[in-house]
Every structure is written in structure tokens, then in C-alpha cells.
């Protein structure tokens, strides 16, 4: 059918058939113990090759792929010759070869010239010889039909017709062969053989038509027997159907009656409860009428208090149960999320080493049919290259360690300077007013370095001198205080690495 043809074509284009051929071409040591699976795979491969439509790859399919399939099948048949279980498996493989040749007759020459086929023909086993004789006769018939269809040589045609005349008693021929002989091979000098072969073919067709008619008669008789038997059983089927329908209707009626009884019982219970409640309320009113007037109000308050307690207890129970169910739901949601994350993490960890792992061992498909993975051959590296690579890695590691130590020293120096800066900033922020400052407190703001203290004093004096200038000296000069500072500020910044302790500049930004 069309669906089967599309499936076979997809198998060919996707490379499944090519992989099957590679599996069948494995060495006998790897096929040990699975010869039955190999024979089944050979039969499936041959069946898929018959009826496939390669399309644009038709030439490669007929000239390269099909000959490789034939070679593999004959090689497998040669390997089965030395096995004790060979006869049934060998017959399966040779049937696959015959099925392939019946659809592609141009492969007959390759089969007859194959060394594996010659080895199979030299077998001494009677069963195997019979199988080989059958296969050989089928190959010869296919080759003869192909020669009649393709060749126009009279000698070749006469030999093919005589061969088919001798073998016609045991084998069927292709359909349409009689019309081919009638049109193309009359008047070539061997009309007697042609007429004899045409008569035999038409006799076989008549016998086949007679067998088809006999089969139709047998099928019609058998179907009439089945029909009469089915009609005879119709009465019993009707009785059984009525019995089942009545049983089902009776069961439904019983269910309806039981449901009505339950509803009536529930209604009676509700009525009795309502009547009991009314009697209770009536009795309470009668008792209230017997109580003194000053005790009625406390009694009603007590009743209201008990009702409020009952309502609050019911509400608190409902609230606590809802909170508990919410907590259980949140806990279950967190557990599901944790399991999902753990599963994803485990899959990721499993996939990471799988990318660098060696290719897996041969996998099994079906019962005993297996596939093999093609391993990539790794390139070898010499001992000198390994030693050079090791030395280079050691040098890179040493350089990285030295660079890391240098970076750590720089980070520690920066952290120390930042800590010192923060300390000075806190001292300045918490400094008391000048009116109440003491000499001890003032000394705490001095730098322990003499050079820094001298430079700071000079900068302070320069700022004081700039502030005491006349006003007309400062006209048009907006940055007098900043420009009148000492000339060694850039040197100080370079010495301290862009961090001025006195608070004038930090990383080149003037404060």
C-alpha cells in the first residue's frame, strides 16, 4: 500500500537500512549467539528494499546500495553454513535473497558471480543442497526473464526460453511473460519452444484461475454456513437481550426505591428534630414565665454567653483547620519544587560527564537484534609533547599564583588605607567645637609622620594668608584658597597614591 511504501522510503532516506546493513556485515565473533536475530534482520532488510521509492537517489540505490545488501546477505548465508542451527536460518536468508531478486532482476548476475554463493553451492548437506538448488533455479529463472526483457539476441532468447521450458514445472514465472513472448520472440526460428512455453504459462494461468474460483466457492459456502449459524442463534440472542434489559430495569427500579426510602427517612428525621426543637423552646418560655422578674435578665445573659462561646469555638476550630490545611499545602508545594530542582540538577550533572564519556557499548533493539556505535579513534600524543605540555601548565600555574599573591597584597594595602581614611573621617565628624577643644584632643588630629605634619601646617598657613588678603586682591578669583595652597600637593598625592589624609583630595577629586 501507499503507507507501507512511504515507510520503506523513509527508512532508506533516514539511514535505518544502511545501519542494518552495517550490523549484518559484522564479524562472526560479534554475531555469536544471535544468528536467529541476524536472519530475521536480513529478512526485514530485504522486505524494506522491495517497494521502496528512493526518488532523486534512485541511481545510488540501484547501483550501490542494493549490491551491498546482496553481498551482505550472501556473506551471512556463508557464515550460517557451519552452524548446527543453519538449515532454517539459511532458508530464511536465501528466501530474503530470492525476494530481493524477484523485485530487482538486474542483481542476478552479481549473485551468480559471488564467491559466497559459490561456497554455498559446494555444500554436501542434503537439506542445504535442496535449498541451494531451489535458490539457484529461482536465480536462473529470474536471469532468463531479465534476458528476455532486455536482450534482442536470438541465441540468448532461445537459450532462455528452453531453460524456462525445462524449469516451468516447478516454478512460477513473472506475470505478462506470455504477451512478451508473443510480441517480441515470434519469427526468430524457435517458434515451437515459444508456443510450448506460452501454452504452459497459459495453462498455469488457467489452473490459477480455477484455484481462485474454487477458493471463492469455498469461501461463499463457509460464509453461508456462518450466516445460517448466526441466524439460528438470533432467537437466543434476542432472549438474552430481553433478559438483560429486564434485569437492568429491575435493578434501576430497586435503586430508585432505595433512594426514595432514604429521602423519606431523612425527611422524617428533619421533621422530628424540628418538632423537638419547638417543644424545647416552648418549655424554655414556660420556665422563663415561672422565674422572678429580677432573674430573667441574668439568665438571658448567661444563655447569650454560652451561645457566644459555642460560636467562637466553632469559628476558631474552622480557622485553625484552614490554617493547617494551608500550611500542609504550602509544605507540599515547597517539597514538589525542591524535588523538581533536585531532579533538574541531577539531570544536568548526569549530562555533563556524558559529553566527555566514551561511546557506549552496543545497544540491543527488540529481542536480540542490536546496533553498534561507531567509536571515534583518539589521536596519540608523544611523551615529549606531554612533558612540554606539563611544564607549560606548571609555568602558567606558578604565574597565576604569583599574580594572585600580588593582587592580595594590593587589596590588603587598599583596605588598610580605606580603614585609615574611615577612621580619620569619624574623628573629624565627632570632633568637638574649637571653643571647648583641649590640647590632648587637638594632638589626636595630628599625623604621626613629621613630613605630613609640616606639609599640613604649611597648607594651613597658606590658606590663612589667603583669607587675610584685602578684598580687592580677591576680585575675579573664585578659587583663591585652592590655588594658593602649597605647590607640593601633587607630590603628596602621588606619594599617598591619590589619597590625601588631610581631607583635601581623594583620588584626584577636590573636597
UniProtKB/TrEMBL annotation:
<protein>
    <recommendedName>
        <fullName>IQ motif containing B1</fullName>
    </recommendedName>
</protein>
<dbReference type="Pfam" id="PF00612">
    <property type="entry name" value="IQ"/>
</dbReference>
<dbReference type="GO" id="GO:0060271">
    <property type="term" value="P:cilium assembly"/>
</dbReference>
<dbReference type="InterPro" id="IPR028765">
    <property type="entry name" value="IQCB1"/>
</dbReference>
<dbReference type="GO" id="GO:0005929">
    <property type="term" value="C:cilium"/>
</dbReference>
<dbReference type="InterPro" id="IPR000048">
    <property type="entry name" value="IQ_motif_EF-hand-BS"/>
</dbReference>
<dbReference type="GO" id="GO:0005516">
    <property type="term" value="F:calmodulin binding"/>
</dbReference>
Amino acid at each position: 500500500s501507499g503507507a507501507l511504501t512511504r515507510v520503506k522510503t523513509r527508512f532508506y532516506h533516514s539511514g535505518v537500512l544502511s545501519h542494518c546493513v552495517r550490523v549484518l556485515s559484522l564479524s562472526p565473533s560479534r554475531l555469536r549467539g544471535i544468528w536467529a536475530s541476524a536472519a530475521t534482520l536480513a529478512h526485514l532488510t530485504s522486505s524494506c528494499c522491495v517497494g521502496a521509492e528512493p526518488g532523486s537517489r534512485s541511481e545510488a540505490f540501484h547501483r550501490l546500495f542494493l549490491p551491498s545488501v546482496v553481498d551482505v546477505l550472501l556473506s551471512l548465508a556463508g557464515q550460517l553454513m557451519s552452524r548446527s542451527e543453519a538449515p532454517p536460518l539459511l532458508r530464511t536468508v536465501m528466501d530474503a535473497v530470492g525476494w530481493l531478486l524477484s523485485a530487482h532482476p538486474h542483481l542476478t548476475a552479481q549473485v551468480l558471480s559471488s564467491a559466497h554463493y559459490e561456497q554455498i553451492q559446494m555444500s554436501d548437506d542434503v537439506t542445504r543442497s535442496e535449498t541451494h538448488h531451489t535458490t539457484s533455479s529461482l536465480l536462473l529463472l529470474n536471469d532468463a526473464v531479465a534476458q528476455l526483457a532486455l536482450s534482442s539476441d536470438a541465441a540468448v532468447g532461445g537459450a532462455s526460453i528452453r531453460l524456462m521450458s525445462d524449469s516451468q514445472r516447478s516454478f512460477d514465472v513473472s506475470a505478462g511473460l506470455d504477451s512478451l513472448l508473443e510480441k517480441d520472440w515470434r519469427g526468430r526460428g524457435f517458434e515451437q519452444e515459444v508456443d510450448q512455453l506460452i501454452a504452459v504459462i497459459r495453462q498455469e494461468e488457467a489452473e490459477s484461475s480455477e484455484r481462485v474460483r474454487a477458493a471463492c466457492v469455498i469461501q461463499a459456502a463457509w460464509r453461508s454456513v456462518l450466516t445460517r449459524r448466526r441466524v439460528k442463534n438470533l432467537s437466543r440472542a434476542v432472549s438474552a437481550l430481553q433478559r438483560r434489559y429486564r434485569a437492568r430495569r429491575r435493578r434501576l427500579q430497586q435503586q430508585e426505591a432505595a433512594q426514595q426510602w432514604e429521602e423519606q427517612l431523612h425527611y422524617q428525621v428533619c421533621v422530628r428534630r424540628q418538632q423537638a426543637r419547638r417543644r424545647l423552646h416552648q418549655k424554655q418560655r414556660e420556665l422563663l414565665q415561672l422565674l422572678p422578674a429580677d432573674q430573667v435578665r441574668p439568665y438571658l445573659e448567661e444563655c447569650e454567653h454560652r451561645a457566644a462561646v459555642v460560636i467562637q469555638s466553632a469559628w476558631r476550630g474552622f480557622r485553625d483547620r484552614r490554617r493547617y490545611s494551608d500550611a500542609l499545602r504550602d509544605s507540599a508545594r515547597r517539597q514538589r519544587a525542591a524535588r523538581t530542582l533536585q531532579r533538574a540538577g541531577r539531570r544536568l550533572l548526569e549530562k555533563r560527564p556524558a559529553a566527555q564519556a566514551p561511546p557506549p557499548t552496543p545497544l540491543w533493539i527488540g529481542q536480540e537484534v542490536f546496533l553498534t556505535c561507531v567509536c571515534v579513534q583518539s589521536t596519540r600524543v608523544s611523551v615529549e609533547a606531554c612533558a612540554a605540555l606539563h611544564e607549560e601548565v606548571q609555568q602558567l600555574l606558578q604565574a597565576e599564583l604569583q599574580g594572585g599573591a600580588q593582587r592580595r597584597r594590593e587589596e590588603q594595602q587598599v583596605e588598610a588605607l580605606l580603614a585609615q581614611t574611615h577612621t580619620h573621617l569619624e574623628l573629624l565628624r565627632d570632633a568637638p567645637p574649637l571653643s571647648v577643644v583641649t590640647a590632648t584632643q587637638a594632638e589626636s588630629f595630628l599625623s604621626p609622620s613629621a613630613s605630613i605634619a609640616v606639609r599640613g601646617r604649611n597648607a594651613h598657613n597658606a590658606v590663612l594668608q589667603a583669607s587675610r588678603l584685602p578684598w580687592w586682591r580677591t576680585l575675579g578669583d573664585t578659587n583663591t584658597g585652592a590655588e594658593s595652597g602649597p605647590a607640593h600637593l601633587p607630590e603628596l598625592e602621588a606619594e599617598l597614591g591619590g589619597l590625601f589624609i588631610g581631607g583635601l583630595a581623594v583620588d584626584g577629586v577636590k573636597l
